[in-house]
Amino acid sequence: MMDMLIPLMVIIPILCALIVNTLHGHDKVMRIVSIIVAISLPVIAIFASVGTQYFGGHNASLISSALPATLASVSSLSPGIIYVFSNLNRIFIFLVGIVAFLSLFTYFSEKRKVSGPYLYLIFMGVASVTALLLSNDIFNMYVFFEIVALTQVGIIVASSTDEKYETALKYLILGSIGGPMLLLGIGFVLGVVGSVNISDIVFAISHNVVDPLSPGLVMAFALILFGWLYASGLPPFHTIKSAVYSKARPNGAAILQGFSVLCMLAFGIAMYKIFAYIPYFNTAIIVFAILAMALSIAMSAMEVDFRRMIAFLAVGELGFIALGFGIGTQYSIAAALFQAANEIVITALLFIGFGTVYYLTKTSDTRKLGGLIAVDSKMAIMVLLGGFALAGVPPFNGFQSKLMLVQAALDAGYTELAVLAIIVSVVIFFTFVKAFHTVYLQPKPNDLKFAHDKIPKATVFSVAVLLIICLALGIFPNIVTDVFIPFAGGLI
Questions:
Q1: What's the CA gap between 310 and 303, in Å, rounded?
Q2: In a 3-state reduction of DSSP, which class is residue 412?
Q3: Which residue of 139, 233, 253, 312 has the fewest CB atoms within a 10 Å radius of its CB?
């Protein structure tokens, strides 16, 4: 039965995490198991049927229809954990599965000995974000998010980079604030509504079972919004989130960014379902979106470390997603979803592609680099095209999602936001081109030494696949927009 594939999306990576951690030291077996499981994740997402999976509960509608009217409203509540698998989930779980596979493929090609704990953390993170996206229970979303946060810290620690412990500790400290705030907000919702099931909460609020503007729900929105900012990496957490990406291995950073996008998406959709009626909801989202876009491009333009520069640009791209949610129309939310899908692919391409510079030279300081186009011109061209996709240059996918966002802003009467989105995209373009010129085109410094002579073929393959996806979504955006636009219509 195809519905049974829904829980397997979570169960299989968890089992794989346990196996590879147990087999630490047996490199060949770990590689084979990891690759097989990594390939299976996007495949399962393709073949799974859209539907609902109940754990420890029941399909409430089947029981309520057989009971007296006086009890029907009570029995309609969902007492168990529910996974809801939609075509929207299919797209995002597929993309994260592809990024995970290519990141692991790159990792195996660059490391002779692989780490069981490192693979364990990656697969546990994949399982957790998948469960987070599937869950229709806001408390279970919090539980899975905390697991994701811990795996992010572990991936940083397991990366052989400088200052990894300091960055991991800072992220943990901030997590001790952001996580409890999120949980406290969920507690307020539970106290007011009496349920943590999102469908039940929406029903109670929309049918005035509880006061929609009660102080408890307004406080819950403020607290959950703060937790959402931490989960996604929007200001004031943009600096630590960019540090997280820059201190992880390039292939690890590609996965970490996917984790952040899915966390942002899952909680953003949940917030929109529950709190969109609250005054200034959209304004609050737009304010943080503008801050993310402005601060990130400003800080990226000043960076001399290309890993930190890409990290800031990746966080800035989250601002475009938030902007779509903040505008709050069907078209803008669809644009935000499209932008989220694009960011997962584009930033993975740039982290892995630009990461080859660090692999070759063991430095990410642009002041010490130059002339790398002579080492592998094909990789240099693919990285450049990836930068074009990030900045929204046609015919790539970034252009399509940002064009949708600009059109949505204009249609909604937010001309200033449309102009801001265009300006930010132009600044991103020039920032990236400047870094590309410094690293690849300027003369090679005399004291620059190479740790490796060439880039592994697996890494070239991974970047090429990601670039093909960017091009395919740019030329045929209806592949995903045909799903995103109806979903956004149902959301509002």
A1: 9
A2: coil
A3: 139
- Cα 37 to chain centroid distance, Å, stands at 20
> Do the beta carbons of residue 30 and residue 116 sit within 8 Å?
yes
Q: Which single residue is written with the structure tokens 């087999």?
A: 23
Map residue 159 onto helix, strand or coil: coil
**Tell me: the pLDDT tens digits for 371-403?**
899 888 999 999 999 999 999 999 999 999 999
Q: Quickly tell me which residue has 């996604």 as its tokens.
A: 232
Distances (CA, A) of 121 to 33, 128, 252: 15, 10, 10
The Cα–Cα gap between 361 and 305 comes to: 13
* Stated length of the chain: 492
The token pair that represents 141 in the structure block: 């979303």
pTM of the model: 0.92
Q: In whole angstroms, give the CA distance from residue 400 to residue 405.
A: 9
307/466 Cα distance (integer angstroms): 19
Q: Which helix (H) or strand (E) holds 85?
A: strand 81-85
Residue type, 315: V
Residue closest to 232 by CA, chosen among 257, 253, 250: 257
* Cβ neighbour number for residue 282 with a 10 Å cutoff: 18
19-28, 31-40, 111-120, 441-450 — which one is most confidently predicted on average? 31-40
Token pair for residue 57?
């509960």
Cis before residue 117, ω within 30 degrees of 0? no
